[in-house]
Amino acid sequence: MEIVRLATTRHWIPTLAGWHFDHWGKLTGFERLQDYVAALEGWSEGREIPTVLAANQGGQLLGSVNVLRSEMTVRPALTPWLAQLFVVPGARRGGIGAALTTAAIGHARACGFSTLYLYTSGTLPRYYARLGWAEVERVEYLGRERVVMRYVTTRP
User: Fold this and answer.
1) Distance in Å from the first CA to the final CA of the chain
2) Domains present along the chain, CATH in parentheses
3) What's 44-71 look like in SS3?
């Protein structure tokens, strides 16, 4: 498996946008799919943050993750954010999500950030905790309880 910046594989943008928008809808931060496609196009150009990382094997797209400056409007001081981690259903439980998460952490570190944040809900906080993320707080956001988590990218 290989993880690359989406800028090197721009032809995947419409596919990723469709997957993300079907899965999260307005949680992507956009009202319309076309607007989200445009956002991914812009983010994919970033060498720093924002950026989009994509996992593939043999040229087959398996998933992606966004690294954004801001993700949660009620926590504007926190930056950067891991967002929209997505792995195609048939490839889940194979370590791709963990690899994408590790790549996002490495990208944030390379950009000079000592902490990366995310928010999630349901059973996913346990998944991220197994990957080394720590809970920061629980907050009501977009109609339900969300768990804000952080990963310290620099270790003593």
Assistant:
1) 30
2) 2-152 (3.40.630.30)
3) HCCCCCCEEEEEEECCEEEEEEEEECCC
Phi, psi dihedrals of residue 126, rounded to the nearest 5°? -65, -40
C-alpha 103/C-alpha 97 separation (Å) is: 10
CB of 116 closer than 8 Å to CB of 105: yes
pLDDT value, residue 155? 56
User: What span, in angstroms and rounded, lies between the C-alpha atoms of 151 and 102?
Assistant: 10
Q: In this structure, what are the phi and psi dihedrals at residue 2, rounded to the nearest 5 degrees?
A: -130, 140
Whether 156 has a pLDDT exceeding 50, the answer reads no
Buried b (16+ CB within 10 A) or exposed e, 88-116: eeebeeeebbebbbbbbbebbbebebebb
Report pLDDT digits (tens) over 5-49.
Answer: 988 889 999 999 999 999 998 888 899 999 999 999 999 887 899
Q: Is the separation of the CB atoms in 17 and 37 below 8 Å?
A: yes
Q: Per the structure block, which two tokens stand in for 98?
A: 């963990």
- Cα-based torsion angle of the residue sequence 69, 25, 150, 68 in order, rounded to the nearest 10 degrees: -20
